Amino acid sequence: MAKNTLDWKNDGQDVDTDNLSPALKGLYDKFKSLSAEARKSREAFETAFVTAGRNAKFIKADQTLAFGHNFGKCRVVVVPLEAPKAKATTGIKL
């Protein structure tokens, strides 16, 4: 059986949300607002969870947690903190 895959880049079409009917535009705006609120709530939860893990000595100073939120469940894994990114250079100096 062939897999049915979507190619969003080539097959998808953008929706001009400014030209939606007032009812659809209102629902879309509510969706966007709730999505932003959900993102902020998720970030606040994750930050507090990491803080609680550090206070309980479960997470070391050089570690953090990566979160997965799928199918109504929350999963975490301890991961190393990312090293600071090196500054860009313009080339080799001799």
Question: Could you explain the architecture of this structure?
Answer:
The structure is a single chain. 1% of the residues are buried. This protein has two helices and two strands. It has helices at residues 8-11, 22-55; strands at residues 63-70, 73-80. The chain has a two-stranded antiparallel ribbon. The longest helix has 34 residues, at 22-55. The chain is α+β, with helices and mostly antiparallel strands and 94 residues long.
N- to C-terminal separation? 60 Å
> Which sequence of strands runs across the widest sheet?
1-2
CA gyration radius, whole angstroms: 21 Å
Mean pLDDT: 87
Keywords:
94 residues; alpha+beta; two-stranded antiparallel ribbon; 2 helices
Outline the secondary-structure elements:
Elements: H1 8-11, H2 22-55, E1 63-70, E2 73-80
Antiparallel strand pairs: 1-2
Compact summary:
This protein is α+β, with helices and mostly antiparallel strands and 94 residues long. The protein contains two helices and two strands; from the N terminus they run ααββ.
